[in-house]
Here is the input.
Amino acid sequence: MAKLHRASVRRTERRFLAEGFNSVDAALTTGRARQLLVREDDAARHDDLVDRALAAGIDVHRLDRRAAAKLAETSTTPGVFAVCELLTVPLAEVLAAGPRLLVIAVEPREPGNLGTLTRCADAMGADAVILLGDSVDPHNGKSVRASAGSVFHVPIVRDADVAGGLAAVAATGIDTLATTMAGELSLDEADSVLERPHAWLFGNEAHGLPDDVLAQAAHRVRIPLRGRAESLNLAAASAVCLYASARVQNA
Here is the structure.
């Protein structure tokens, strides 16, 4: 099971490892967990998770300290893990459901940022998170932990074809909104755009969105900054943009 820390093994076995209470709780609640593993020293602390797993007919394994340490990716392990099936779904399935709010990350590389983006998308009611291009694996342990369970709540698409993925989204009539400091549309004045089905485009931390993606977006949107900070990082920008969408669409 410790080999599931490697992306190649996850792809081959179609399974991944979720660590920590939030992730395991969400895996059980959504019916994604296939096995539960708990460190013997922490069994009493996680007795609710154990009871729920047993009631659902899920195998529960007790681990000694050495085995738990081998599975853990954190310095202080919470002592509970779940083995789950991979979560990604086809893009066509997401688009067929008639989404009104999508999050599209173009070549995200940092697992913690992806987990935070997924958590924000979940909190703001996004219909899916779409990863395009050469992206980090959303089943990466750090990404799963950073999502605080949201990776189990929001459909996740992974598609290596950036141009094809964007074309498929646009073909459904969904507007794509690119975040950029030089955007012609201010987020403060974007309510009429946010009322329509749309997808926010976010680039990776190092390079932002590619020029061709920016050029093809239906709108390029800037977040007005009132203080002296020159920019926002990915997590902050996504939170601001998705909150604006949720405010308009749920008014």
